[in-house]
Amino acid sequence: MQVSDLRNLNKYNMTKSPWAWVPSLYSAEGLPYVVVMQVAVLMYKQFELSNTEIALYTSMFYLPWTIKPLWSPFIDMAKTKRWWIITMQALIGAAFAGIAFTIPTDFWLQATIAFFWLLAFSSATHDVAADGFYMLGLNEGEQSMFVGIRSTFYRLASLFGSGVLIMLAGNIQTWMKGSIKYSWSLIFYGLAGLFLAVVLWHSRVLPKPQSDKGLTGNVTVADVMKELWATLKTFFTKMPVKEVAIAVCFMLLYRMPEGLLVKITPLFLIEQQSAGGLGLSPQEIGFVQGTVGVLGLTLGGILGGVLVSRDGLKKWLWPMVCAITLPDVVYIYMSIALPENFLLINACIAVEQFGYGFGFTAYMMYLIYYSRGEHKTSHYALCTAFMALSMMIPGLISGWLQENVGYELFFIIVMALCAVTFIVSALVKIEPEFGKRG
User: In whole angstroms, what is the distance from residue 431 CA to residue 438 CA?
Assistant: First the structure.
């Protein structure tokens, strides 16, 4: 082999290495989600929409993640997953550009909502294709090795979105002396440029596994719909009717308090004290949410995973239920005391997010528990659809409820509804050995 051939081979191996595409693929999966679900909330608050409008509009964006199992079979049937990934990333970039372009216009509300919908549907479709491609592009050993890497870079993308982007928008507003719309327009133009680079990068480095191809031969849409029906049927008949009903209630209600909180807490942080909030700046919110909050969430999740793998889910279910509910009391305290000490506020958010990360482990492990058996992958996708729905429904009314009762009473109501989490947790049945490392 000639030296030039060896160099070309080494170059090929380097660019096709999982390190070249797994981190960037899962960063590209995490960033649009956090922009839709968190960044949009603060942007619309700065555009002076009411809390009712903000919570309603942004909670509706959960819908694509709720119904994505309905079109996931078509992703298998048409084109390759590699094609879907690159195409969806291009659409995500176009949606970011559309938001940036229309923010300064007179019809900014209708236009940005439309582009956020495009962003949400593209991102949800990208999730399906990326998770499928991960299993095709890596062998079993590589999948195990990189599962932690993909989660880490998804988290880093969340930190970048909920932290760096918000702080950067606040800094631009300071530099430009309060030009709020101009700052957010620049942020979204930057995201559009970033995703253009992502498309170019993945067009080059994503491998082309032989198994990555659309369904061929005599497979029809009717066949795919038949398979989808079989998946739905087995999902709702894999246990006795009573146990299935309890499982679905658990999936829908375990996170009810969090579904109410998630849209309101950033609004509470940025709201002026005269209106019952803490009056933090975008830079401070970016630090609290994107640094302290993400760190607490990550540490809680890691600890939860370690303990479940050691002792099983059943043993740690109740500590996790307490962890995901009881720390919500910090918001009652903050809404009453309205603390100005930034360190104290960070400590409160860290405690709540650590508890949420620890308690959320129980929820995710139960989804895996219920998905076992035939159609495991499809059943897990349906479970995650229920998870998205569990956040969407409470979120739709959270803004209306808060504006009618105020922040203090709203957080008291959320704390009272934690009883629902305890009730559904008491009803579920879990095998004692489930979750233990073999």
Answer: 15
CA dihedral (368, 75, 232, 59) positive or negative: positive
Decide if pLDDT at 275 tops 60: yes
State the chain's mean pLDDT as an integer.
Answer: 88
| 21-35, 118-132, 221-235: range with lowest mean pLDDT | 221-235
pLDDT for 318 equals: 95
State the average pLDDT over residues 92-115. Answer: 96
CA 92 to chain centre: 16
Q: How far is CA 335 from CA 118, 235, 268, 326, 341, in A?
A: 36, 42, 8, 16, 14
Give the Cα separation of 45 and 178 in Å (integer). 14
Q: 213 with 43: CB under 8 angstroms?
A: no
Query: How many C-alpha atoms does 128 have within 13 Å on its Cβ side?
Result: 29
Q: Whole-angstrom Cα distance, residue 248 to residue 237?
A: 12
Residue type for position 207: P
Length reported for the chain: 438
Condensed to tens digits (0 to 9), the pLDDT of residues 208-262 reads 888 777 655 555 667 677 777 887 888 888 888 999 999 999 999 999 999 999 9
Tell me the C-alpha distance between 91 and 129, whole Å: 14
Burial (Cβ within 10 Å: 0-12, 13-18, ≥19) of residue 214: middle
Q: How many CA atoms lie within 13 A of 263 on its CB side?
A: 35
